[in-house]
Amino acid sequence: MTLLTAQLSHHANTRADPGPDYPGDLRKIASLEASREAFDEISRWPDYRSTPLCHLDSIARQIGVRDIIYKDESQRFHLKSFKALGGAYAVARQLQQRISTETGEKPSIDDLVGKRYASIVDNIVISCATDGNHGRSVAWGCQMFGCRCVIYIHRDVSEARKQAMQVFGAEVIRIDGNYDDSVKQADREAGIHGRIIVSDTSYPGYMDIPRDVALGYTVMLAEAVEQMQESIPTHVFIQAGVGGLAAAVCAYFWELWGAKRPRFIVVEPEKANCLQQSARRGKPVTVAGDLDTLMAGLSCGEVSLLAWKVLERGANDFMTVSENAVAPCMRLLASGEPAIEAGESAVAGLAAAIAAREDPVMSDRLGLGDSSLIFVIGTEGATDPELYRQLVSA
């Protein structure tokens, strides 16, 4: 019996670097040294704790692989998303830099949380565009550290996600356009009003802050490696929007494990596959249109340039997964043992892994077999509770 029905498209990346060593030029984008610094800072935030690493034994048995390891970010702080790590970390870095410029001192995370520099921080305004989770992290970070926050959302962001950002004191502005339009408007108005943009996507002239966002994500990778003990996955299926998370995971495992690194598969929605199309063309490609997908956090049409520099050399495969796989995969996790709360953007990687293993041709292309050890990240929980209830109970 087929466990999950899904349509997949696949592109093998012939430009992938076959060498075992992590390229030195990519260390300027992501490195284990910078990741350790991020871990040292974030692990000192109030209420920090590692999120669970689950073994999906039943699903693994049914599709015929050795194991599926699932990093459950539905329990990350109280934001229910891995994004909590990135946006808030980049906010902290920007505040530290501004304080250092004005005072000549080097403020710690404890200084920020304790509001030691409130006279400076109170006058700083952070801004971003978001599908939901990144903006929520930025708003939370701004509240935690004491600065102001203005967030732009596009027409398809749910009212629940808008309210989740307002809870943390953010001013939320909805535009009549898609995610990429909201990025452009946030950037334009930040220049007019003197705000600091904290975005998770990079573009010409804007590289440093998205690097900090991605470094924040690596905290969950450090946790996962410790939780896996000495096991090394054979395959990683990772969902992607602009590519920041995928690039962070790819770079971290590449530098850590070298020649033993897993086969790395990037997964996107069918209508928002900017990374797959970029891989086919050999250069960044913009996907136009409404980018309509249930996986709202992955509804992105423009590649992050920093992410592309890593993924064009480090990713082995680029895949898309169809919309009809999303709700069934969420239900599969919700009814499992252990029961896992997974939002609609959390399941793309797992859905692609299951569907690929159940397709003999795709399974062969990806080298999947009974000895495969698959690693996936459940990037969010029920960040829109009402939508989650509808999808899981359908």
Task: Report on this structure.
- The protein folds into 2 domains: 8-81 and 210-393, 3-Layer(aba) Sandwich (Rossmann fold); 83-207, Rossmann fold, CATH 3.40.50.
- With 394 residues, it is α/β, with parallel strands linked by helices.
- 43% of the residues lie in helices and 14% in strands.
- The longest helix is centred in the N-terminal third of the chain and has 21 residues, at 83-103.
- It is built from 16 helices and 11 strands.
- It has helices spanning 32-42, 57-63, 83-103, 109-113, 118-121, 133-145, 159-166, 179-193, 208-228, 244-257, 274-281, 305-314, 326-334, 348-357, 360-365, 385-393, and strands spanning 8-12, 53-55, 67-72, 125-130, 148-153, 171-174, 196-197, 235-239, 263-269, 317-321, 373-378.
- The mean pLDDT is 95.
Short description:
The chain is of the alpha/beta class and about 400 residues long. The protein has helices spanning about 30-40, 55-65, 85-105, 110-115, 120, 135-145, 160-165, 180-195, 210-230, 245-255, 275-280, 305-315, 325-335, 350-355, 360-365, 385-394; strands at about 10, 55, 65-70, 125-130, 150-155, 170-175, 195, 235-240, 265-270, 315-320, 375-380. The protein folds into two domains: about 10-80 and about 210-394, Rossmann fold; about 85-205, Rossmann fold (3-Layer(aba) Sandwich), CATH 3.40.50.
